[in-house]
Design brief:
heterodimer, A: MetI-like fold, 14 helices, globular, B: D-Maltodextrin-Binding Protein, domain 2, Dipeptide-binding Protein, domain 1, Dipeptide-binding Protein, domain 3, 20 strands, 29% helix
């Protein structure tokens, strides 16, 4: 196991370097740089101005020079560079948003699990019942619903149609906190902003995981050892939760491990609709604004998380499933 | 198990509702919340080109002069506007000029330091410092000497004639005592200066807190000694990137107004209708202000077909632009006949106007040697079929509709339009600035109210590989008379004569048609009915230009 781990971790290095070259190159290929965009809003800029500005910001350098500079800075100096758009260090841009994303994504993850797991088990146990069909229909609706539309409908319902007793909207229509509020993340003043985005974001997970748990449960429930468990007179609860559910959870681990990158990657659409200042919208905007250093940092971060998530899934397999061994 | 789940869910819901009861506070009359779809990148407006920045900084900084809602200049930090008549603007032999500025006494930075001529000299040096990356230096680079007469008076020595020499520097001043040490430690320090902490405000408001991605809080500046003190203590900008959510915030009463950096025209029209029908949002009003954003279609004048003026005129005659704006914009945006909007001081209302006339179009095309072929498409004597290609920003619904209308109408006179839309980064990064299009591109120019024809239409401003594609005359218009006029405008100091030159240039332009003029966009803003004195400008002057005068009616 130890040797396997070391080998996997060493393999990551060339993989990540290759990825960084690829991402950097794709962004380099995008036509135009921020100075070209600047000209669109200011027809009075002259040729000399454009040349001077490109030089100041280093946009006149060739691809390899720019990449080498970035790599050297990032690896040797652990400095992710300076954001052209925000005019602050990239680490600051990211660190301002990372906690927001972690909170939103983990809230939505927990919410999804809390709803999806019981409903999935229920659906499997009453296969082909009315409730099963009903949940199946709901699952497909949930998966087909576009996030931004669902988000807007939620805002319409909870912020415009429904009022709180004090006269304001029942739930705030976007944002992350009351202005000037110093309340902690776990107070109502902050939580009320979290409810809608966490649910909207979770809906997709809820519905897909519910279906997933239903099918793995169905598979397990029909195994011989479940019949044996029932035959030896165990309580149904014990059969379901101790014997069936535990085994059904094994494939779920892959799903969960694969959702780790999402935890830090954010969700662009939901963040935009609910004005939630997270990593997802930051990544999108940095690509649109040609804010190369921020885009590089966040895309690389996601790449690293995908790689780590994969490794974690493989390790967890070995932990929970005694049949899996690495050497 | 389901029963227990249901009970738990109900309990959570009840708890939530109970907590909501004390959730929202009533609206504070000492505060205005402004919603914007964009967030400033930085509050250092020397390094920002975002409209969101100028909206946010509008109340934080004063300049020598400012423009009001009618685009009229008034002195803000200066005692008066220098003119030739009052002797503060002098023309010297050898085409040199001197402009004298007198500052109001007792103006202060946010930290209490008095604002003096030295701050302006320092600002000019910052603008002219090649390492600092300040984009625009149109005025500053014509100044060969900055002379400080006394604490409150300075003279700008211009090395050439320039018609806008009495508008001040390119940017509002920054305090020398704060920024001199910063600039000394390098360009990076200047770019990284934390404008939420560093003193730069000399306006009626100052920064209290900026939570990136959420909001910016500004409060009345107690040391402000300029035009008028702020009437409302706190002005908050709330950043909501999705314009639908922004509108929901307005309808939910979570914001008091929306700046022009917000609703799209369609949303503005929908909101306006909702209010008129007394359905929702009845506490608000929507303002549509004609803006300096000009939608047009550039021709490529190096194309042999489009070189012929008659072909260009025919193409414009064949579009029913009036019906188009009526259908698409409910008459809120109107047809343009040249590149200047009616509020521009040099606007000429009597230029050639191309009403919808397929007959005239056919006539002109026939005169230019185009005949309808067997398939109904125009052909020239070489047997080439007139199939024109247009590019615009993909995904822009309005522009796509305009293209469909034009395609349909040109088809009637035998011209086929091929629509090849591209991502905006491709259009503005490659195709348009490098003139890499065969026939046409559709986009908009946003210019300041001082805009003049030189940058867009002088033949020296045609982008080429030699000048690194830097000019803005993207159609490639080469016209000796136009060059003569656009260059004369820059040097004509007598406003009346300059206006005459402007008129002449627009008349020539609308005869020659280097581009198809489509329409001027409007700025859409919305304001709470009790919020008084909000005056949108429709130009680069932010809606917050007079934020200190905004107040709540009881």
């Amino acid at each position: 196991m130890q040797r396997y781990l070391i080998r996997r971790i060493l393999q990551m290095i060339p993989l990540l370097i290759g990825l960084s070259i690829l991402i950097f190159f794709i962004m380099y290929l995008m036509p135009g740089d921020p100075i070209d965009m600047l000209v669109m809003g200011n027809p009075n800029l002259k040729a000399e101005d454009v040349a001077r500005l490109k030089k100041v910001w280093g946009f006149d350098q060739p691809f390899l020079v720019r990449y080498w500079k970035w790599l050297k800075q990032a690896v040797w100096h652990r400095d992710l560079g300076f954001s052209y758009h925000w005019k602050i260090p990239v680490t600051q841009v990211v660190s301002e948003r990372l906690p927001n994303t972690l909170i939103l994504m983990s809230a939505s993850l927990v919410l999804s699990l809390l709803i999806a797991v019981p409903l999935g088990i229920y659906s499997a146990r009453r296969q082909y019942s009315f409730a099963d069909y009903f949940l199946t229909v709901l699952a497909f609706i949930g998966q087909a619903m576009p996030t931004f539309w669902f988000g807007l409908m939620m805002i319409l319902l909870f912020s415009i149609y429904l009022k709180s007793p004090s006269g304001g909207p029942l739930l705030p229509p976007g944002g992350m906190m009351d202005i000037g509020s110093t309340a902690s993340f776990f107070s109502w003043a902050r939580l009320k902003y979290l409810i809608m985005p966490a649910f909207v974001l979770g809906l997709h997970n809820i519905t897909s995981w519910m279906r997933f748990i239903r099918s793995t449960m169905l598979e397990v429930i029909n195994q011989d050892y479940i019949r044996t468990a029932r035959a030896k007179g165990l309580k149904e609860r014990t059969v379901i939760y101790k014997h069936a559910f535990r085994n059904a959870m094994i494939p779920m681990i892959t799903l969960l491990a694969m959702s780790i990158p999402n935890l830090v990657g954010g969700a662009t659409l939901t963040e935009t609709v609910f004005a939630w200042n997270g990593i997802g919208s930051m990544t999108y905007n940095s690509v649109m604004n040609k804010d190369y250093s921020v885009a590089m940092a966040s895309l690389m971060f996601s790449a690293i998380m995908v790689v780590i998530g994969n490794l974690l899934a493989d390790i967890l397999y070995a932990v929970v499933d005694p049949r899996v061994r690495y050497d | 198990m389901t029963k227990r789940l249901a009970i738990t869910l109900t309990m959570v819901l009840v708890l939530a509702l109970a907590l909501v009861a004390n959730g929202f506070a009533a609206r504070n009359p000492r505060e205005i919340i402004i919603g914007m779809a964009q967030e400033p990148d930085t509050l250092n407006n020397m390094l920002s080109d975002m409209s969101a920045t100028s909206q946010a900084v509008g109340g934080l900084t004063d300049d020598l002069l400012e423009r009001d809602g009618n685009w009229k200049l008034f002195p803000q930090m200066a005692t008066q506007i220098p003119t030739i008549e009052n002797g503060l603007w002098k023309v010297l032999p050898g085409d040199k000029m001197q402009v004298t500025w007198q500052l109001k006494k007792g103006l202060r930075w946010r930290d209490g330091r008095e604002i003096t001529a030295e701050d302006f000299e320092f600002t000019w040096k910052v603008i002219m410092n090649d390492d600092l990356g300040v984009p625009s230096r149109e005025v500053s680079e014509m100044i060969e000497k900055f002379e400080i007469k006394d604490k409150y008076t300075f003279v700008l020595h211009f090395k050439q004639l320039y018609h806008l020499a009495n508008l001040g520097l390119d940017y509002n001043p920054i305090p020398k005592h704060i920024f001199e040490p910063i600039v000394k430690s390098g360009a990076k320090a200047f770019a990284e200066a934390d404008f939420t902490k560093v003193v730069f405000e000399n306006g009626p408001y100052m920064v209290k807190e900026w939570v990136r991605g959420s909001h910016l809080v500004t409060v009345a500046n107690p040391r402000y000694n300029g035009t008028e003190k702020a009437k409302v203590q706190t002005v908050i900008f709330r950043f909501i990137p999705n314009t639908n959510t922004l509108m929901a915030n307005l309808l939910a009463g979570a914001v008091d107004m929306l700046t022009p950096v917000g609703l799209t025209l369609d949303q503005g029209l929908a909101l306006d209708k909702m209010i008129r029908d007394q359905k929702r949002g009845t506490d608000y009003g929507v303002q549509f202000t004609t803006a300096l954003t000009w939608e047009h279609i550039d021709f490529n004048l190096d194309n042999p077909w489009l070189k012929d003026k008659r072909v260009r005129q025919a193409l414009v005659y064949a579009i029913d632009r009036q019906a188009m704006v009526d259908a698409l914009f409910e008459g809120k945006q109107f047809v343009s006949h040249s590149y200047l909007p009616p509020k521009h001081y040099g606007y000429n209302p009597n230029v050639k106007q191309y009403e919808y006339s397929p007959a005239k179009a056919a006539e002109l095309l026939a005169a230019a040697g185009w005949k309808k072929g067997a398939d109904g498409i125009m052909e020239n004597t070489k047997g080439e079929k007139m199939i024109l290609t247009i590019h615009t920003t993909a995904g822009n619904a309005v522009r796509e509709k305009v293209e469909m209308i034009i395609k349909d109408q040109w088809k009637k006179i035998g011209i086929e339009l091929k629509i090849e839309n591209v991502a905006s980064t491709v259009l503005f990064g490659e195709i348009s600035p490098k003139r890499a299009y065969e026939h046409m591109t559709m986009y908009a120019w946003t210019s300041p109210p001082t805009t003049n024809p030189y940058g867009l239409w002088d033949s020296s401003q045609i982008p080429t590989a030699e000048n690194a594609y830097a000019g803005q005359n993207r159609p490639g218009w080469r016209n000796a008379k136009s060059d003569e006029l656009s260059r004369a405008i820059l040097k004509e100091l007598d406003e009346k004569k300059r206006i005459a030159l402007f008129h002449e240039h627009q008349a020539l332009w609308s005869e020659e048609l280097p581009s198809i003029p489509l329409y001027f966009r409007v700025d859409v803003s919305a304001t709470h009915k009790n919020l008084q004195n909000v005056k949108p400008t429709g130009n680069t002057t932010p809606i917050t230009w007079n934020v200190q005068n905004w107040s709540w009616a009881n």
